[in-house]
């Protein structure tokens, strides 16, 4: 199987870490009789010749030897070798890699009939992807389905049929008929679920009218027949760790995830399906449901109270895997997690050991249950956060979660101030320690915090000073404190010639309201040609109102900028200074369409504009009617900040209410 391997000049070939001279040893390791050695060899191959899906000249040189390994029955773990070949030949790997695997695709035909179920399972999809003989591929799949008895292999054959339909629609009629047949008795529940998922992807017209109830019933039937598997003993390698992270019922997860993906924007059906999964008597089914719910919540807008409440119900489960999955998902939902707040609070009270998460390296962080409770905006998190603030070590990022609690967190202000006053100014971690505390005090507008904030600005050594990001955050905190920050005016003036000039000028305006000091600085920053400075200066000029009329020519010019955020900032400043919506609204309209990330800011402006923004209410109405979250593209790609999207929707409703 290694004939010719020593004739390849591996040292002249490359992989992710340099010379490929080690590759022959790794290929030979795949044929080892020792399981750990095979696992390590596979791990190293994924980490070098196929690192993060990349393909190198050494990768192409490996392909013939991988085929030889896959075809020798004495080689163990051949299924993993076939999976590596499929990954190398994937579309995303490029045409050369795909051509290399296609050149050897004939080898997948006998592997489809291999004695090893894992090999048969891996070979099914490989046939469809790489063998350029559609009729022969379909014949092999149909024959295998007719004789296959292993219920671990049958779903892979069904998935391969679906892939065949999608890749070769002209020859797909027979495959669709077979999928429809597989979705009915006498096929086993798991196979019927697999067939329904594939039909939903490629032939939805063949689905039953009662798809969701049928899928839930099949899931229950499948779970009742599933035997408990042995505990995993995967080696401590990258591949082994990945396998341990997979759901214990990986097949069940795949079947339902396929169905959810196929249903796509049928959100009502997906919620009903998820509710059925979360009501399953089987803990594995519920755990799979919790994990796949995250994608639904992140991408779509709907009333998720029923599934969120059911996820909350999993918090009382004694199984760590299920409870931890529920906590992880709820922590990313922010206010959407409110229906699970009672269960989160109960878990926080019952398990103080979960308040803080200790890492092997680095500072401890806020524990998942308490983080989720605080992010949901539930005031019951406040007493627990107070206990942590009184402790010896404050979990990293705690202050950022305090922000989510709004005014309910006001009792925490004294403790936050004390903590800020203890930040060691000469520590390289000063910024990391202070930033969350400053964010919390800013949100609370705690006027008593001025001395502690000034300590940061006055006492920081030269290495910190005006060049550190911490200074910008400290100045923004002073800005939020208004006239209470008058004592900071001398320090703020010294920052007017630094990169923090615009934010320092804004804080001076809040503290003293002296336009003669502030306006020249903001005009300078507006016209320096630095994008971030110009945007910040425009935002600050808007706060000056009519006193900033001297900035109108430069703001009108900036409103025609090629940079969308500069245009938006300039437009809002123009409105606040002139009070004329006519030149402003077209800028908002174009930015709204060009960059969805601007919509949150624009919706906030429209809410403040009231009736003057009526010309853009069609944008607001359209946003409220959109089912997909605003920064997510079809297929689930893009940003998944649920809190940001929920704020946008709230501002849109306010804008309509104020018209």
Topology:
Blueprint lengths: L13 E2 L2 E2 L3 H7 L5 H14 L8 H15 L6 H11 L6 H9 L4 H4 L5 H14 L3 H14 L6 H14 L5 H10 L6 H14 L8 H15 L12 H8 L4 H14 L3 H12 L4 H17 L5 H9 L6 H11 L10 H10 L5 E2 L7 E2 L1 H8 L6 H8 L8 H6 L9 H9 L8 H15 L5 H10 L9 H12 L8 H6 L6 H12 L2 H12 L4 H14 L7 H7 L5 H15 L6 H10 L4 H11 L7 H9 L6 E2 L3 E2 L3 H16 L2
Antiparallel strand pairs: 1-2, 3-4, 5-6
Word description of this protein:
There is one protein chain. This protein is mainly alpha-helical and 659 residues long. It has 36 helices and six strands. The strands form three sheets. Strands 1-2 form a two-stranded antiparallel ribbon. The protein has a two-stranded antiparallel ribbon with strand order 3-4. It has a two-stranded antiparallel sheet with strand order 5-6. A hairpin with a 3-residue loop joins strand 5 (632-633) and strand 6. Helix 28 (501-512) packs parallel to helix 30 (531-544) and helix 29 runs antiparallel to helix 30. It is elongated, with a radius of gyration of 30 Å. The model is unreliable at 228-234 and 240-247 (pLDDT under 50).
Individual helix count: 36
Reported for the largest beta sheet, the result is: 2 strands, antiparallel
Strand neighbour order, sheet with most strands? 1-2
Helix content: 55-70%
Ends: how far apart?
Answer: 76 Å
| β-sheet strand percentage | under 5%
Structural class of the helices, strands and pairings? mainly alpha
Number of strands: 6
* Average pLDDT over all residues: 92
Q: Report the uncertain regions.
A: 228-234, 240-247
Task: Indicate the radius of gyration in whole angstroms.
Answer: 30 Å
Anisotropy-based shape: elongated
